[in-house]
Amino acid sequence: MNTYKIWKTLEHKPAGKWLFSTMLALKAPYFLSIKPRYQILEPNRCELTLKKRWKVTNHLNTVHAIAMCNMAEAAGGLMTEAAVPFKSHRWIPKGMTVKYLKKAKTDLKAIATPLKAMDLVESSAYPVNVDVFDTNGERVFNAIIEMWVSPKS
Length: 153
Hints:
By secondary structure, the chain is of the alpha+beta class. It has three helices and six strands, in the order H-H-E-E-H-E-E-E-E.
């Protein structure tokens, strides 16, 4: 499935972003727990939002740390998916380093961007930065995800 092509087909249609987000969550059911809503998808950028609701909160009534990790993986993974040549290469997350910067008390927006250009000549690490912001524009979370990109055999 060429995810980026599906995004380009749906992004400007009525309810297209909702449909895309729902389809992607069904393809990767674990993300149903956070219900991400994709807003922007490009080979070097992905933005998604998460509504603060009871299911993603902790005992402090803030968005749970692992919900933000899931959000980061969803944004970083989809951005990588859009950047990797679909027919010739594949990718997988290899590791993630996170920093919890502030209590996440509102709805959130994650923005994923690459930290360096992708090497398509040989298998290599492709680091992706994901920042998560609250509705006041304050950064509450940061993740660096190491994606492993390799040619398909």
